[in-house]
Please model this.
Amino acid sequence: MSALNERSSESTGGTVYEQVQASPEFADLRSRLRRFVFPMSAAFLIWYLVYVLLASYAPSFMAIKVLGNINVGLIIGLLQFVTTFAITTIYVRYANKHLDPAAERIRERIEGAA
Amino acid sequence: MNVIAQAPAGGVGNPALNIGIFAAFVVVTLIVVFRASRNNRTAADYYAAGRAFTGPQNGVAIAGDYLSAASFLGIAGAIAVNGYDGFLYSIGFLVAWLVALLLVAELLRNTGKFTMGDVLAFRMRQRPVRAAAATSTLVVSFFYLLAQMAGAGALVALLLQIPNENVLGQGIVIAIVGILMIVYVLVGGMKGTTWVQIIKAALLLAGTAVITVWVLAIFGFNLSALLGQSVSANPSLTTAAGAEKLLGENLLAPGLQYGATATAKIDFLSLGLALVLGTAGLPHILMRFYTVPTAKEARRSVVWAIWLIGIFYLFSLVLGYGASALVPGGAQRISTAPGGTNSAAPLLAFELGGEILLGLISAIAFATILAVVAGLTITASASFAHDVYANVIKKGETAPDSEVKVARITAVVIGAVAIAAGILARNQNIAFLVALAFAVAASANLPTILYSLFWKRFNTTGALWSIYGGLLSCVLLIVFSPAVSGRPTSMIKDADFAIFPLANPGLVSIPLSFLLGVIGTYVGARHHVEIAKYSEMEVRSLTGAGSEKAVTH
Model:
């Protein structure tokens, strides 16, 4: 890696990584990643927190029976599983479509330059 | 057989059979480990299994590493005795994986080499940050290891009918488990250890799936009927302290374990925070991401792990309520059996499938302890050899061979310490150590990992303040908490220096560590090398350019 840095810094005054980091294509990849993972992380953390707070401070709400012995608490708990599985699937699709191709293009360019 | 089952000593099943099935597991895994050891020459082979596992294989291994005895026996037991609150506990363990999936796994795989310290120190001054990362890795691994080994004592009492008074007998079993673990790690390295995790995870999931279907079949695949039977079979419970606790309908709603007082509620909030943020900071989990060839495979491993772990916790729900509904004596018998609430799943297995199924579940429980301690040992020894020995002491100038040699010696030392600590800590109430390991991981490790990966301005001072601040605040708050002193359930019952009201420090220590990272960053100077290295780290982490490649043999 250091050989790669030295060679490119001789020619342009910045390492390959600095050049790539400054490129619009990389900025686009970074913002696509952050635009997805930050809001999604906030969403699932808040949803989990709401669940824990409901369980702690509204147990009688959670105990309301919906179907036989299955109550609101069990349904919300199982919904946590559903959302976890769903977010996982949505992220994989997003990454395959919007992150991987761009990452691969940039990687090939850097490793080709070496 | 029934006489034994109802004897006051409380052991069930046939110890010889339990040992026999476990011995078969050991023989099979040893063969696999010896076969895997043929290509174990370089550091990348020993620490990262040559980065040659596929995503699905690694995902199964992650599930094997993560589903410790505390998950397997503990959650089923907590649901059997405390109903809904046990289920609540399991959800934090699952949701936590989204942090690993979205924010950590792929970027870490692209940036690092063998350890968490590789990522944390990437753009920082190497020696201080590596020393800090290694310290926190060793502390988390030690707490986790101690909890696993102490749990082995309770399991021995339950499954091999060696009573707690028989120190020699229990000690020998714990020592055998420890020695086997050392053999796996020394001979098999990361590759052998990974195969042990895979085999164990497959057995665990298959075993719990059989019991789950069996229980549901008894109730005509009607979950509501199962819950109803659990409610009607367990009107109340007399605790060890002699207090009468009303169960019944309360089993279905939150509050039995965590809802008693205002402090207990805040304590649970604190625990929930540590669980959800701790997983992605557990060093033995992070290290697993290096065993695959690319970031995309790291992503696939987490996806597999999430599905397997999620399905396992759904099984646990049925196991827990099934145990309180079907085991004669219900929650009362489970909570007073040898091994305490950990006995729920084994007792249920005995009720359904007699000695054979109990023997299988017992063997899986031992395999679980064995596999988890092996994973912890290889992580701790890698961190010591790679971060402390090679980079702090030798300043990065060692032959890779000598580094692996140090790692192997460290593994033996850690194994010996684990055996000794496991024997000393038998029957101690140290279940809080697992929660503490998660709290330290969430406080000392996760903030620094996230800042390193996403925050340009972050620097060495910020990293050190965040790691040491999170670590020290966690440990101090635990020492002065009711988990250690002042309560009948505390580790030290006769003294009371519990000035901090919560048993779980996360609510204080996690925000504190995030804050210290920011303050430290603005206090500390920014070195030129850190700026240049940030470009490399950011580009590498997002694109995988220059990342460590798989070893081809």
